[in-house]
Design goal:
By secondary structure, the chain is an all-alpha fold. The protein has one domain (7-69). Helix content is 54%, strand content 0%. The chain contains three helices and no strands. It is globular and about 30 Å long.
């Protein structure tokens, strides 16, 4: 989870193993992203998602998503 101004470049970095936190979990599949026009709004959303309530919300969303994808 994180903020970027270039999603394609970020995905490539993860895919080729340049990101330490995901290097050993490849191949990866993008299942969620959010687009914001305003950088401050994007950063505020990231802070929320990394908070307790935001983390729980995202975890619930992704649990349902992964459950439906794996069928």
């Amino acid at each position: 989870m994180g903020f970027t101004t270039n999603l394609k470049s970020r995905l490539i970095s993860h895919a080729v193993g340049k990101v330490l936190s995901t290097r050993n979990r490849r191949p990866l599949k993008l299942i969620h992203y959010e687009y914001f026009v305003n950088v401050d709004d994007a950063k505020a959303r990231e802070v929320f998602l990394k908070s307790g309530a935001g983390h729980d919300q995202l975890k619930a969303f992704l649990k349902r998503t992964l459950k439906s994808v794996s069928r």
